[in-house]
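User: I'm writing a tutorial on reading structure tokens. Could you give me a worked example: one chain, its sequence, then its tokens, then a sentence or two explaining what the tokens reveal?
Assistant: Sure. Here is the example chain.
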Amino acid sequence: MARKSLIQKFLNTLAWSLVGALLLILAVISLFRFVNPPTSSFMLGYRLAEPGQALHQEWVGLSDISPWMPLAVVASEDQRFPHHWGVDFSAIRKALAEYTAGEGLRGASTITQQTAKNLFLWNGRSFVRKALEAGLALGIDSLWPKKRILEVYLNIAEFGPGIYGVESASQLYFGIPARRLSPVQAARLASVLPNPKVLSAMNPSPYVWDRVAWIQGQMSQLSGLNYLRGVLK
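And here are its predicted structure tokens:
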């Protein structure tokens, strides 16, 4: 009887701990809808890994970012961004079908999932991290408007070693504020997001230039700036 009582007590404690953790996470997500995050897990990780290296990041509102930049990242990373609920289950099913058919396992992360990962989690391919990422993305999408998701993402995304956020990337790579980015410059920045520690927007390789051309083509096919008009208004 005493053993059953201890097990029941442990399970009750665990359940309340999980509820408390969930409520805390929802509170933080709700707070960041209105308050700009002071840092991110990726930035903290960089400071720990490279304590002697400079970290560049400057927050700017979405109104101070060229409208070509959100279009470029949507065209490159997540073309169904205006339509899904934070997790693109259609893209996940397609990626799993391709993997089952013998093709490589490709990523199917949405911009919302990448925002959740960059803000709260760590890099890696474990199923535990992907599950946490998906759960956080669903919470973010339900509590933030799409416009806020793009704003946070563009301010915390890594564009090169120690370079976080589109304002710092624009200033360092092109010598201009993010509000003046041209379509090709926006595509150059978006082209390095899959692997910013290897791909360079400053000195693009032939592979990066191919990605830039592809992204520009996708931006055009998505009807240009009209595609995100409903999201950004």
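What the tokens reveal: The chain has two domains: 1-35, 36-232. The chain has eleven helices and three strands.
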